[in-house]
Amino acid sequence: MNCRQALPLLESLVDNELPEAETARLKSHINDCNHCRQGYQETIHLREILSRNRVMDPGPQYWTETTSLILARTTELADKAQVHHLPQKTRHYGQVTIIRSIMSVVASITILCIALLIGSSLKKQNVVHYVKNAPLLATTDLRDLLQVKDHPIYTAQDQINLARGALLLGMPGSLGRFAGLSDLFLTIDLK
Amino acid sequence: MRDMSKTVPELVESFAKGDQSAFAELVTRYRKKVYSLAYQILRNHLDADEVVQETFVRIYRRQKELANVKYFSTFLLRIATNYSIDLLRKRKGHSKIEEDSSSLPGTVQLDLARRVVTPSQKFESKRLGAEIEKALDRLPPRQKMTAILHDVEGYTKTEIAGILECPEATVRSNLHIARTKLRKILKHKHKRKE
Ligand SMILES: [Zn+2]
Fold it and tell me: Rounded distance, CA B8 to CA A7, Å?
C-alpha cells in the first residue's frame, strides 16, 4: 500500500469501518510512513478532543420542569385542536338552529292563526249572543234607552251584562262606546 | 407512570394513535439527546432549552405523520437540528450569549474524562475544548453539524444522512473537510504555542 491509497482510508480506520484485511495492510503502512502516521494520529487526537467535548447536564430539576412545560404546551395544543374542530360542529348546530327557527316561526304563525280563528269565532259567538240579547250597542242609543228606565227590552241587568261582555271580550271601541260607563252603572238601578 | 418496557417504535405507534403517556415517555427518552445536540450547535443553555421545548412541541404537532416515520430518532433530531440552525442564523449578528458552565442549573458534567486526570491535564482538556469550540464555530453549518453529530454525539454516518437529509457520501465528504480544517486549526495553535 502506498500513501495515495492510504490517505483516503485513514479516517475510515479511525472510525473502525474497514474490513480486517484492509485494516492490517493500512496499519502496516502507517508503521512505516511518517506522513500517514501523523495524519492518523492527528485524526485520533481530534476525535478524542471532540468526544470529550460533551455538554453539561443541566440536572434533574431542569428536566422535570422542562418536561412539565412541554407537556403543558402540548396539552394546550390538544385543547386548541379540539376547539378547532368546533366550527364543524357549530356548522352542524347552525343547520339545526335554522331548521329549529323555521319550525318555531311556522309554529308561531300556526298558533297565531288558530288564536285568531278562535278569537274571531269567540267574538262572533259573543257578539252574536249579545247582539241577540242587546242589538243596540251604541252608547248614545244606550243612554237614550237608559233614560227610559222601564224600557221593555233592556232590563238593567241586560245593560250591565252587555257592558261587561263588551269589556271582557275587548271588543274594538268598547271603551269608547261605553265611555260613560261609570255614569251608566250609576244610573242603572241595580235592583 | 413511565412505560419503560415499550420499544421506541411501539411508543411512536401508540403516540400516533393518540396515547399521551407514550408521548411523555418519548420526551423522557430523547430530551437529553436533543439538549446535547442543540447545546453543541448553539453553545448556550437558554437556546438549547428553547430547542428542546420547540422540538417536542413540533413532534407533537406532527403526531399523525409519525405513523409513517421509519426512524423516530432521525426524524426528531432532524427537527432539532433544523431548529438549532435557524436559531444559530438568527443569533448571528447579535451578540453571542457567552455562558459560563457555572450558570447552568445544577450542572453535572456528563462526561468529564472517564479516566483520572491531573489538574494540569484537566486544564489542558478544558483549553482544548474551548479551542475546538471556536474552531467548530468557524465551519459552515453543515460541516459543523456533521462533525458534531459524528465525533461528539457519536451518530453513525447513516443516521447523520437521515438527520441532515443528504446522501451518505455527502456526510463522508463534509466530515472529512471538517476534520481536515479542525486538524489544521489545532496544529496551527500548537505551533504558535511552541
Ligand atoms: Zn504514507
Answer: 39
Task: Please indicate whether, in this complex, the C-beta atoms of B60 and A74 are within 8 angstroms of each other.
Answer: yes
Name the grid cell of B189. Answer: 495553535
Taking the CA of residue B27 as centre, how many other CA atoms within 13 Å lie in the half-sphere pointing to its CB?
A: 29
Q: Which of B35, B43, B66 to mutate to test the interface with A (most CBs of A within 10 A)?
A: B35
* Per-residue model confidence as pLDDT tens digits over A56-88: 889 999 999 999 999 999 988 877 777 665 555
Q: What tens digit of pLDDT does each residue of B29-54 get? A: 999 999 999 998 898 999 999 999 99
> How do A56-57 and B108-109 pair as beta strands?
antiparallel
Backbone angles phi and psi of B73, in degrees to 5: -65, -35
- Residues in chain B with CB shorter than 8 Å from the CB of A35 are none
> Could you list which residues have their CB under 5 Å from ion ligand 1?
A 3, 6, 33, 36
Q: What does A65-104 look like in DSSP terms, one character per residue?
A: HHHHHHHHHHHHHHHHHHHHHHHHHHHHHHHHHHHHHHHH
pTM of the model: 0.62
| Domains of chain B with bracketed CATH | 1-100 (1.10.1740.10), 114-194 (1.10.10.10)
Q: Do A11 and B129 touch (CB under 8 A)?
A: no
Inter-chain touch B182–A54, beta carbons under 8 Å:
no
Cell numbers 468529564: residue: B112
- ipTM for the assembly: 0.78
Closest in A53, A58, A74 to B132, CB measured: A53
Write the pLDDT tens digit of every residue in A119-141: 556 544 443 333 334 433 444 45
Which chain B positions have a beta carbon within 8 Å of A57's beta carbon? 32, 107-110
